[in-house]
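Below is how a single chain appears once it has passed through the pipeline. First comes the sequence as given, then the structure the pipeline wrote out for it. We keep one example in the README because the format questions we get most often are answered faster by looking than by reading.
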Amino acid sequence: MKTQVQAGDVVYLTDEASNQVKGHHSLWNNDLRPCSRDEHNWPGGRFASLWIGMCICLPTYSLASGMIALGMNWWEAVLTVFAGSCIVMIPILLMSHAGTKYGIPYPVFARLWFGNKGAHIPALARAVIAAGWFGINSWFGGQALDAILSHIFTGWASIGFHLGLAFLLFWALNVGIATRGPQAIGKLAMVAAPTLAIGAIVLLVWAVVSAGGFGHMLSAPAQIHGAKFWVAFYPSVIGVIAFWATLALNIPDYTRYARTQKGQVAGQIVSMPVTMALFSFIGIAVTSATVILFGTPLWNPVDLIVRFPTLVVIVAGIVVILSSVTINVGANVMAPARAFENLWPRRITFAIGAVITGILALGMQPWYVLSQFSNYIFNWLGTYGTLLGPFDGIAIADYWLVRSRRLDLLQLYTPKGRYAYARGFNMRAVYALLVGWIIAFIGLVVPSLHFLWSGGWFFGLLGGLFSYWMFMRGEKSVLTDEEYEAVTVAEVAPSGPSAGTAVTTE
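Resulting structure:
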């Protein structure tokens, strides 16, 4: 029987197939189900707005600070950010294809490689790290809110717990917005992106005018040259890659709504690497101006805006808060909320998953993670990048090399179906995960091979990719061309978001 419809770039379940698996509440609910034809409605511009909104944030602003501290000059630091962003865009686009074609969220995609029960391993790994980032961005946003309130209310700063209270208020704002779901997150990005871009440009113009031009701001020479530069460049570019290694995994949560593959690819390519580089440049330029104007580098924009008049503090603070909310609900809620939802689809909704994410973020103690700000970019990013790299490799190998992009959607929601493996676990994926981790950890214990650890995301990805590809040879769950055609029918109605259902045959 034909159970899925191919409509241009996207595949969706027939009405008959959807009704058949709706009763399997252990694998299906309204958020985890594949998108209908009408729900593939995001144009390329929506993805560009999403990325611009997520890139213009405090961690990006401060990302190049560690590179400057290592001895790079301004253009070397910006080039490092751009290079790392371009590299991580490769796995992002490879993962995006599956979301667009089959309309499935990340936890369901993970069933394909780990099994319908084993999928909890990559989903929860991504969830814990996302919760950590949720807390970090909430702490940044809480600082901005605290600065605004201190300038509006004269007695605010006298409250003993005023910073903690501002943090909790901002945390609650994030959780409240996140519970409204992924479509609301996409709409937020459409509003936030132009606002944040204008705010960044205004900040740069102020810095240039106040410091007397770019010449004064960017005159500091590089402190490292030759081999010393490459020693600093290598872990720095890996840190930039790890910055978005999380979203490289769960990008299907967003691209599942794309109209076309071309649209989502173009929207992502033209936005993320350029925005990351430009906003890092703004961070470097403005911070250089603060040295001239205030005699000390102010890498945290909150430390800068509190030096302005109250009206400017309020406006700038709102922009900072908007940026923190956008990246938090955009990059750090979707994956964990879906992961928790996947644990118990019958009871846990996306909104409940978002609340659990917020509670877990508090447990991650972001104030402690940021207590040594100069190291957190490399330690935090480097460690979790190493842990996530093999998952990226396994997913890419499964979809592109093992299955050649052919899936049976119905079976992803069938408890004892094609992708259940042995009692719900694909142990070959677990073994490939261990191979990727071991390769990276060898560099941690063998000094001469430390490059394996400092480049843990990259080598973990390669280790997971190639070992999984080898382990999965002869796997019986892989669809042949004939099997794919047996369950797939081409859409006969006019294409487009308003298209009707296809005519299917037995």
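The chain has 26 helices and three strands.

See the next section for the split statistics.
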